[in-house]
């Protein structure tokens, strides 16, 4: 379940074109919630970050030792490794607005 | 009321303990237990925590939750061969290792040998953005991996409430925690979950709702400026447990919980007798002294010689080649040695030889529990056969009366279990009704000696009674107790109609009695002399009478002789006359014969 996608610069919010989004999605088996999270993430990235992101999906059922590195408790968790600082977005990413805030693609909500 | 409570408690405790020691009445019905290895805790919980179930340990900050949990894991790994996982949410691995290293736990070594796994879960609230539904499967996976990687049988989740701060959705968290505890049960590991004490409930987040098998509450209270930690088993489903608050302490070698009666009343007893070091006192105690392993209470008003008696007892043990441990709470060892020197008791050779050890501490140095733990440790290290606590009453300064009683009970139980003879001195105030404060303690004691000042005729003297001595015939008499440069001696007191006579009065009485004896002796001699004189007089009288008689007899003989002479003369005259008158011969012959007879008589 690895996905890599590069696309045209099309950001209307970001004026730092050199930025690259390195994302890690932690799941535990192919549960409906994990699948939903992946679909939601793909959609948001394609919509806002085409060509400037990389998603790495880590299945903890297969690699449980990896949970320690990023201090993963909640599933699913999306870790934004880049740009700094590291942020964690937990849940099935169905709340697009919050995901965009978490990804630094729009200013925090009031 | 206080005392009654105490008794009830003790009775209850011993009921539990006796139940425990009777080897598994119905093994099938009993809940499987997971021994903690923590001193005393396994006794209170009747064998340990419930095996394969979670136990909640709650308490406010700094009361030893993490330590208790860590010790549970370390002891499990070291003593019971059960590897453990420690998942901590607050302290980092390095911090934790440093913290428990002070208790002598080599966490790092255990981790290296894969007996223990420490996993620090760090969650930063600020890093987390919540976007929809989630669960804590990550935690489950992580924990599962940790457990499986070393084959852990024990798990500790240290202050799981850290999660509440990190994760915003409490509803999800609660549901997940419920699932977690269920999962731990299914996994078959014995888990300890620590939680912060809440204001109105046991834990701040009400975790007791989820962990219902065993809940332990820790508490750290300051009473009269002395802090004491307490442990209470709030709930233990399916198991008998002590319900009291038990004091516990954190020493150099971990936690020790000190049950009121850690052993119950089933220790072995010895019928061996040991000397008190004072021959006359032994004589008062059925002639042989105290029972080995017995507990002796020595009460007395100030200056009655309690320490001296104790020192004698210690010396007697040393002389037998046994070890004696002297806990001094009022005097320094050197002072005791010097003072005993003045009554002819040399203790320093025994100290040098290592058979007598002093342990001196101010009672207020630390709380009772710490005293007790220190004493336990000293006793375990030195292995004495005789222990002296001088004076027990000064420990009252470190705790309330009921606490002191409880402590002494535990100490006595501990000593009796090891067949150590103990002597406690107790200071009483003059003029108080008979040792009201000691009544509760005295019932724990096998022998009770009372030293008392007896004031009369302008002087003070010491008296010693044996108030009780279980299992032996003992003297009911008061002895006068003398302390001189030669040491201690007991002398019979004079009991007269005016009461007991001691000191100078006894000496005076003694002199009076001596005088009376002398007088009666002289009287006897006088009577004897009179009799002798009478005898002599009688003898003399007899002699006089005899001589008188002799005289008379002599007189009679003389008269007789004169008479016969006269007869002879007459006869011869008559014969002469007859001859002259020509009398016949026959008459002349008979006259001769008559003369012969009278000659014979003479």
How does this model look, in words?
The complex is a heterodimer of chains A (110) and B (602). By secondary structure, chain A is of the alpha+beta class. Chain A has one domain: Glutaredoxin (3-Layer(aba) Sandwich). Chain A is 22% helix and 25% strand. Chain A has 2 helices and 5 strands. The longest helix of chain A has 17 residues, at 32-48. Chain A is globular. Residues 1-16 of chain A have low confidence and may be disordered. Chain B contains 17 helices and 25 strands. Chain B has a 9-stranded mixed sheet, with helices on both faces. Chain B has a 9-stranded mixed sheet with strand order 17-16-18-19-15-20-21-22-23, sandwiched between helices. In chain B, strands 1-2 form a two-stranded antiparallel sheet. In chain B, strand 18 (386-390), helix 14 (401-417) and strand 19 (421-427) form a beta-alpha-beta unit. The radius of gyration of chain B is 48 Å and the shape is rod-shaped. The A-B interface holds A 26, 28, 33, 37, 40, 60-61, 64-65, 67-68, 71-77, 85-95, 98-99, 101-102 and B 119, 121-123, 127-142, 144-145, 163, 166-167. Strand 5 (87-90) of chain A pairs parallel with strand 6 of chain B.
Strand arrangement, major sheet of chain B: 5-4-7-8-3-9-10-11-12
Q: Write the element-wise H/E pattern of chain A from the N-terminal end onward.
A: EEHEEEH
Number of domains of chain A: 1
Instruction: Report the mean per-residue pLDDT of chain B as an integer.
Output: 80
Instruction: Characterize the main sheet of chain A.
Output: 5 strands, mixed
Query: How does CATH name the architecture of the largest domain in chain B?
Result: 3-Layer(aba) Sandwich
Residues in β-strands, percent of chain A: 15-25%
Q: Return the CATH topology of the largest domain in chain B.
A: Rossmann fold
Distance between the termini of chain A: 36 Å
Q: Ranges of chain B with pLDDT <50 over ≥5 residues?
A: 1-28
CATH top level assignment of the largest domain in chain B: Alpha Beta
């Amino acid at each position: 379940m690895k996905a890599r996608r590069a696309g045209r610069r099309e950001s209307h919010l970001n004026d730092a074109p050199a930025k690259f989004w390195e994302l890690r999605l932690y799941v535990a088996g192919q549960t409906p919630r994990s699948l939903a999270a992946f679909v939601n993430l793909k959609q948001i990235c394609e919509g806002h970050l085409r060509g400037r992101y990389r998603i790495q999906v880590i299945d903890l059922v297969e690699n449980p030792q990896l949970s320690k590195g990023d201090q993963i408790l909640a599933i699913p968790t999306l870790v934004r490794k880049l740009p700094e600082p590291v942020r964690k977005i937990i849940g099935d990413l169905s709340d697009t607005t919050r995901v965009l805030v978490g990804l630094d693609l729009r200013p925090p909500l009031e | 009321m206080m005392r009654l409570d105490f008794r009830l408690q003790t009775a209850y405790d011993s009921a539990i303990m006796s139940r425990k020691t009777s080897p598994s009445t119905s093994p099938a019905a009993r809940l499987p237990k997971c021994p903690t290895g923590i001193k005393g805790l396994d006794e209170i919980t009747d064998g340990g925590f419930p095996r394969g179930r979670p136990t909640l340990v709650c308490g406010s900050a700094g009361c030893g939750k993490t330590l208790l949990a860590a010790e549970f894991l370390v002891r499990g790994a070291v003593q019971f061969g059960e590897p453990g996982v420690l998942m901590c949410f607050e302290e980092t691995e390095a911090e934790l290792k440093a913290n428990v290293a002070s208790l002598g736990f080599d966490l790092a070594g255990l981790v290296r040998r894969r007996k223990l796994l420490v996993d620090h879960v760090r969650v930063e609230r600020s890093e987390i953005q919540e976007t929809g539904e989630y669960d804590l499967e990550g935690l489950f996976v992580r924990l599962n991996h940790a457990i499986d990687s070393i084959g852990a049988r024990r798990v500790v989740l240290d202050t799981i409430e850290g999660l509440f701060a990190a994760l915003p959705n409490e509803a999800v968290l609660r549901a997940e925690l419920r699932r977690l505890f269920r999962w731990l049960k299914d996994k078959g590991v014995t888990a300890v979950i620590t939680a912060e004490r809440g204001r109105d409930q046991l834990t701040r987040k009400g975790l007791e709702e989820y962990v219902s098998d065993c809940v332990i509450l820790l508490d750290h209270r300051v009473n009269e400026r002395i802090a004491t930690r307490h442990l209470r088993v709030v709930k233990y489903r399916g198991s008998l447990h002590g319900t009291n608050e038990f004091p516990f302490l954190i020493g150099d070698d971990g936690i020790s919980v000190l049950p009121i009666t850690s052993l119950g009343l089933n220790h072995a007893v010895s019928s061996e007798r040991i000397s008190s070091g004072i021959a006359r006192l032994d004589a008062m105690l059925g002639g042989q002294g105290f029972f080995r392993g017995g507990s002796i209470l020595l009460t007395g008003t100030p200056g009655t010689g309690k320490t001296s008696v104790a020192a004698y007892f210690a010396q007697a043990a040393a002389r037998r080649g046994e070890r004696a441990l002297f806990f001094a709470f009022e005097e320094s060892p050197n002072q005791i040695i010097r003072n005993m020197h003045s009554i002819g008791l040399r203790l320093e050779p025994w100290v040098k030889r290592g058979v007598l050890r002093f342990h001196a501490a101010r009672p207020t140095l630390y709380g009772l529990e710490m005293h007790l733990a220190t004493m336990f440790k000293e006793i375990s290290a030195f292995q004495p056969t005789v222990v002296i606590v001088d004076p027990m009453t000064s420990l009252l300064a470190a705790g309330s009366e009921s606490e002191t009683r409880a402590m002494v009970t535990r100490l006595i139980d501990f000593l009796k279990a090891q067949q150590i003879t103990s002597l406690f001195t107790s200071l009483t105030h003059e003029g108080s009704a008979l040792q009201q404060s000691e009544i509760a303690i005295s019932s724990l004691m096998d022998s009770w000696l009372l030293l008392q000042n007896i004031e009369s005729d302008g002087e003070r003297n010491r008296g010693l009674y044996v108030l009780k001595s279980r299992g032996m015939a003992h003297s009911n008499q008061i002895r006068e107790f003398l302390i001189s440069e030669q040491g201690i001696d007991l002398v019979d007191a004079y009991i007269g109609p005016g009461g007991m006579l001691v000191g100078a009065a006894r000496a005076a009485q003694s002199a009076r009695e001596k005088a009376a004896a002398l007088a009666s002796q002289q009287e006897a001699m006088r009577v004897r002399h009179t009799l002798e004189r009478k005898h002599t007089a009688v003898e003399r009288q007899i002699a006089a009478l005899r001589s008188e008689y002799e005289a008379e007899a002599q007189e009679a003989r003389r008269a007789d002789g004169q008479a016969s002479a006269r007869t002879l003369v007459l006869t011869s005259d008559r014969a002469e006359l007859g001859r002259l008158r020509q009398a016949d011969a026959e008459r002349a012959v008979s006259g001769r014969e008559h003369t012969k007879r009278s000659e014979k008589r003479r």
